[in-house]
Structure formats: structure tokens, C-alpha cells
What we know:
Blueprint: H1 2-26, E1 32-39, H2 46-63, E2 69-70, E3 73-81, H3 86-98, E4 104-106, H4 111-124, E5 127-130, E6 147-149, H5 154-165, E7 171-177, H6 180-195, E8 199-206, H7 214-223, E9 227-230, H8 239-244, E10 253-258, H9 261-264, E11 274-277, H10 287-299, H11 309-325, H12 332-339, E12 343-346, E13 349-353, E14 360-361, E15 364-370, E16 379-386
Parallel strand pairs: 1-3, 1-4, 4-5, 5-6, 7-8, 7-9, 9-10, 10-11
Antiparallel strand pairs: 2-3, 11-15, 12-13, 13-14, 15-16
Signal peptide: 1-27
InterPro entries: BCAA_transport, Leu-bd, Peripla_BP_I
Organism: Sutcliffiella cohnii
Amino acid sequence: MKRVKLAFLLVCMSVLVLSACSSSSSGGDDDTITIGVLASLTGGLESYGKQTVQGFELGLEYATDGKMEVAGKKIKFIVEDTETKPEVAIQKATKLLEDDKVDFLVGSSSSGDTLAVLPLAEEYEKIMVVEPAAADSVTGADWNKYVFRTARNSSQDAVAGAAAIASEGVKIATFAPDYSFGHDGVSAFKEAAVALGAEIVLEEYADPTATDFTSNIQKILDAQPDYLFVVWAGANSPWNQIADMRVQERGIKISTGAPDIPALYTMEQLVGMEGFTVYYHTLPDNPINDWLVENHKEKFNGDVPDLFTPGGMTAALAIVEALKQTEGKTDTDLLIETMEGMSFDTPKGKMTFRPDDHQALQTLYAVRLEKVDGVDYPVPVLIRELSPEETAPPIRNK
């Protein structure tokens, strides 16, 4: 009889322990959606990282009406600095996945950092929303099914850039940093420009950490193109040296993507340049962008949102929209099924995740740099909107 009672007590204790474990696993973390944001808060792309984080914070605020919750679950986000170093990005992403148990990854500012982290998203089976990295390989050769990109890619940039300058018989030289972002950008631009009848007479690449571009620019002058198309990102831009070496005065027209506001200050010599841009705060005409501009000024000392701020906001909007549709469920397979083909409103209008490669199709802007009263840098002025259908890039993940 004593043995029976002892056995009964042991069974009861086991039931209580299992019940306690079950209660622990279904509370706390299950009531919170955790998002890990990887961004360059130091290094050459520091300004891009800060823009993304500020936009992401505002995006969560907008998408949740300031409540920071969706489908009855709280949302929190953790920001980690990749220092614009791929090995650091891997360390920080691993920490977010293993220690913080994040439900989503977002980032990063550098294509190199992002490409280093993509295998971790696959290993841990977590959605990674890529923003603002643009290298084609992110949704091309290095893509996996856990990758969704709200950022535009290099091919989308290329289609917009080629539309601005390429035509039959036009000779074009390209200039870009010597890493994945630059090579992908030039490759995609070349494909689009050649299709329009242009000839690429030189592809010139520079050390992405360089500050002296004299030899690169001299090669461009020697090639005597009609246009110089520049693909660039980061603080060490070549614009001052391009002006110092009188490239335009030698009959070579400059074309590029209009960059963020700090870089626009260095482009005084390029007033009149026709190219494209990802975003400038006066270009989109919709209620979400109006809200972004107004609230960004209010939250960040009167500053307007910059080039990658709306991208950060868009990443947040995409995640919250997906969670609304799954009613807060974070099962990865369900999220993938939900997000493939999902359309959602953003500061740049409606975007859609293309099912084939999870690249967000989106509006870009053909612009001309002009002087505007009251603004002490060249301003991107709209020539025309380039629709999501018009800028849809080739599918490269086959």
C-alpha cells in the first residue's frame, strides 16, 4: 500500500512539474514579438544605419497606432551595431538568434554584412527582412526562402538609371566601389543600358575605403565616354574629385542615384544632373509619407527623413502587416506563405513581395538636381515616377 501511495505521489509531482514547464513556455515570450535589427551604427555606412533605425521605430509606431502591439502581443526590438564588418554582423546576428530568441531579423546597412548573415536566417529558420542592402545577390545567387527584401535592389536602380541616359550609340563609363554592391550595380546597369542600345566603354572600380580617386578618374577621362554613371554608397564619395578633375567640363555628363542629404551637400558641381533616386522626402505624395515627414521632424529635432528612413519604416510596416494576417502567429512557414505576394502600403506607395524571389516591387523616381530657394544643397526634383512594374528587376535566384 505504501508503495502504491509513493508511486501515486511521484506521478502527481511529475504532472505538476510538466504543468509548470508548460505554463512557463506559454507565457512571457509567447506574448511578445521580438525583432532584431542589424545596422551600421558605426563605420562607413553609419548614417544609413541611423536612418534605418529611426525609420523602423516610426514604422512600428505608425503600424500599431502607437500601442507597440499586434494581435494582442507586445512588440519589442533590439538594435545591434554591425560596425559595417561582416564578421561582426555574424556575431551580432548569432547573439540575437540564440540569446534574444528573436522572431525576425532586419538589416543590414551593408550588402557585405547582409550576405554574411543570410545563411544564419536559413540555419535558424527565421524571416530576415533585408533593408537597406541592395546587392542583387541577396535576392539572387545567395537567396534563401527566409529572405524578404523591402529595400530596392541594384537591378531596380539600374533600370531607373539606364532609363535616364541610355539610348542607341551612347558611350557610357561606370564607376563603383570594388565589392558586391558596386559590382552588382554595374552589372545590372550594363544589362539595362546595353538593351537600350548604349555601349559600356569602361568599368572602373575603386577600393571602397579609398579617399583618393585620381587614378580611377583619369582612366575614365582617357576612355572619353558621353556619360559617367556612378554607383556609390558611403561617406567617402568621389564627387569632389570628379569636380576637381573637371570631368563635366571635358564633355562627360555625370549620372547617378541622388544620395542622402549629407552627400547632396558635396554635389554642388552636379546641378542639372539627371538620374534617379530611391527617396527624397518631397517626392512621394501619399498620407503615410506625410505622416513620416511630420513625425520625423517632431521626434528628431526638426530633421526631415532621409534616403533610407522610409526603408526602415517599410520593414516595420511589412512585419506588422504579416503578423496581422497571421493573427500574431510567428510560425515561419506560415509567415512565408503569408508574405509571398503580400502587398502593403508604405511611404513610397504600395509595395508587393514578388513570390518568386521575395523582392519588394516598388516606385523609384527619375529626378534632376536643381537649386531650390531656402535649401543649401542640390535638391532632387521629380521628372517622373518610375512605377513598380517599370522598375521590376530580373529574377536572379534560379
